[in-house]
Specification:
The protein is mainly alpha-helical. 50% of the residues lie in helices and 5% in strands. Strands 1-2-3-4 form a 4-stranded parallel β-sheet, with helices on one face. Strand 1, helix 1 and strand 2 form a beta-alpha-beta unit.
């Protein structure tokens, strides 16, 4: 709530989990006891640029045991003699006042706990885990695809082998059929197997009761 002409924090709702409160550049001059009641777990409070004039105005902040950073830049109270020593004495739980500790060591740029960096880290870690899961799923998908391709190759190879085997079986069956036909012819004409062509023809004619043309010619000559 920065620079909104705020005069008081009396209407602040109860925020038990609130850690960091920005109230700079307003017109607040007191009533800080409300913060102890409504924001008991406050760790960072920025009141710079307000109308705080004396140390006693800060006394209610003693009831904020977790408060370790307080900013009062551009407040009239900072003009008091021994301002820093007085505030650290009044609020012993403080670590940093106006960005420096009691030994004038500067505070870090940000506090992970107050800025919610821890939550961001958890979120980033969660994203990392999701990416790992996606990678694992991608790897599994690739393995499944490779297995399917291998199965397709195996099926194609088996089909080719089956085709070759079928052709060989057909040829063998044709050969067997030819042999069976020749064998049948041999059984029907037993005299036909080992005779020369002329003898075969003569024998067939005799079987049919016909005369050989050569014999007819001899008869005519006679």
């Amino acid at each position: 709530m920065i620079n909104i002409n705020l005069l008081s924090v009396s209407n602040l709702p109860k925020l038990n989990k609130l850690r960091k409160l920005e109230l700079s550049d307003n017109r607040i001059s007191g009533g800080l006891e409300v913060l102890a009641e409504r924001t008991p777990n406050l760790t960072h409070l920025n009141l710079s640029g307000n109308k705080i004039k004396d140390i006693n105005t800060l006394e209610p902040l003693k009831k904020l045991p977790n408060l370790h950073s307080l900013d009062l830049f551009n407040c009239e109270v900072t003009m008091l003699i021994n301002y820093r020593e007085s505030v650290f004495t009044l609020l012993p739980q403080l670590t940093y006042l106006d960005g420096f500790d009691a030994d004038d060591q500067e505070a870090p740029d940000s506090d992970p706990e107050a800025d919610g960096d821890g939550l961001e880290d958890e979120y980033e870690n969660g994203e990392g885990e999701e990416e790992d899961d996606d990678d694992e799923e991608d790897d599994l998908d690739e393995e499944v695809i490779e297995d399917e391709e291998d199965e397709d190759d195996d099926l194609e190879g088996e089909e080719e082998e089956d085709g070759v085997d079928d052709e060989e079986e057909d040829e063998e069956e044709d050969g067997e059929d030819d042999e069976e036909e020749e064998a049948d012819d041999g059984e029907l004409n037993p005299n036909k197997q080992n005779l020369p062509r002329g003898e075969k023809r003569k024998r067939n004619l005799e079987d049919e009761g016909e005369e050989d043309p050569e014999d007819e010619e001899d008869d005519e000559d006679d």
